[in-house]
Specification:
- By secondary structure, the chain is of the alpha+beta class.
- It has a single domain, classed as SMI1/KNR4-like (3-Layer(aba) Sandwich).
- It starts with a helix and ends in an 8-residue tail after the last strand.
- The radius of gyration is 14 Å and the shape is globular.
- Helix content is 27%, strand content 25%.
- Strands 1-2-3-4-5-6 form a six-stranded antiparallel beta sheet, sandwiched between helices.
- The chain has helices at 5-15, 21-30, 53-58, 63-70; strands at 33-36, 41-44, 81-85, 91-96, 104-111, 118-122.
Length: 130
Amino acid sequence: MPVDIKYIVETEKELNIGFPEKFREKMMLLNGGEVVTENDDWNLFPFFDKSDKKRISRTCDHIALETLNARKWAGFPENAVAIAANGCGDLLILKPSIHNTMILDETIFIWFHETGTIEALADPFDELEE
């Protein structure tokens, strides 16, 4: 289900960081969904869409909320943004760019909740299969 760019911008303001352009473009078209990796299936967190009750209900587990919750966990990388979960506690994350810490890098990482370790997964976002 598409999402209006204004909801992406609201999330960027709430988290004080910008999303990579390819991620924004893909999420504007789908706003959530699933991606499949070699070892797991992931549910993408949507951007919170407040345009009507149905969309509010469908997007209540949104990126900003899930990121703020994840930042409370021990070992979650500082300033990372959670974009997906596998249902077992692990998260797909984006981290700030080393060139501009106000923008998230395109590389997607897996954050393993049991160990607190991260592993590069894909670069850029469109390499993941839907």
